[in-house]
Each structure stands twice: as structure tokens, then as C-alpha cells.
Amino acid sequence: MDSRRIIHLLSRTRDRIQKHFQHEIDGLKVGKIAPAHGSVLYALMDGPKAMQDLARLIERDTSTVTALADKLEKVGLAQRTVAPHDTRSYFMALTPKGKIAARKVIGASRGVVTRIFKGFSAAEREEFTRLLFRVYQNMEE
Predict the structure, then answer these.
(1) 3-class DSSP state for residue 93?
(2) What's this model's pTM, rounded to 2 decimal places?
(3) By the 8 A CB rule, do 96 and 88 touch?
(4) What pLDDT, in 10s, does the model give residues 102-129?
(5) CATH of 3-138, one of 2.40.50.140, 3.40.190.10, 1.10.10.10, 2.30.120.10
(6) Given 3-state DSSP classes, what are the helix, strand and coil percentages for the chain, each rounded to the nearest 5?
């Protein structure tokens, strides 16, 4: 395979994964959310987070996290509250409906991972994951 096409291949693969994951999320009937919202739901599973911590965890800028939070609040999956120590800061937490949705989205993501690794041996899965993580680390800012 021509390694000069790697950027194109990675980009198109990401697009296909996102498209498939979106289809899975749409079937869950948890509200009109996107795969990026799944990252927020997952990050909040173990409890409320300050917005800046949430941004760092999901590797997005704060304006993006604010937009994601707005949508999750709109569909009733999360709620922001003013931080007790600093009224200029906010914490975000899942609502009871959000906890249910988070479990469903996590289940859907497992289905996508199963599809990604269709036909892979356990050793191939391990090697691919190791190499992909290495690429990820190489691209760290």
C-alpha cells in the first residue's frame, strides 16, 4: 500500500467510523446527539466535572465543550451548575436520563469497535491498537 495516502486513509476511516457511530446513536432514541456528545457522556459517567477539566479530558477547546454542553442540556441529558468556589466556573453532571443514555452510547460504541475489528485475530487487534496509539502519541502537540 502507498504510504503517501496515509492522511487520506486515516481521514476517510474516521469519517466512516463517525457515520456508522452516528447511525448507531440515532437508533438509541436518546435525543438528537452526535458522536462527540458521547465523549462528554462517557467522561461524566464517574461524576460531575468542571468545564475546563472536561475540555482537557476529551481534548477539545472550551468553546467546543460549551456547545456540546448546550446541546446535552437542551435534550435533558446533562446539567450545568455554578461552581461553589468560583461563580464564574461551571460543573457539568449527567441527569438520570443522561446516565441511561451514556450506558446506551457506550454499548453502541462497543458495537462499532466490534465492526472495526471484524476479521482480526486477537494478536492483530492488539498490534493495531498498539500502533494506532503510537501514531496518536507521535501527533501530540
Answers:
(1) strand
(2) 0.86
(3) no
(4) 999 999 999 999 999 999 999 999 999 9
(5) 1.10.10.10
(6) 65, 10, 20
